[in-house]
Amino acid sequence: FSSRRRHTRLQGDWSSDVLFRSANGMTYSRLINGLKRAEIGLDRRVLADLAVHDKEAFAAVVERARTALAA
Predict the structure, then answer these.
(1) How many CB atoms lie within 10 A of CB 69?
(2) How confident is the model at residue 24, as a pLDDT?
(3) What global pTM score does this model have?
(4) Separation CA 49–CA 58 (nearest Å)
(5) Euclidean distance between CA atoms 4 and 30, whole angstroms
(6) Which residues are CB-neighbours of 61 under 8 A, at least 6 positions away?
């Protein structure tokens, strides 16, 4: 794979991993929108890492995103 194609493939892996982890009624785009509204500046790499390695922290981030969307 070329460098660009590999990056694009990995980028899809991050977002699908985050989407899988946050699937409790929230799509990836709504999660990102909620994070922006809550002024939480985490990129998809950090979100994927949290989703895999620190589920409690990820759940807290998702909950803050939900709260921001509801406001």
Answers:
(1) 15
(2) 64
(3) 0.70
(4) 9
(5) 27
(6) 35, 40, 42, 47, 50
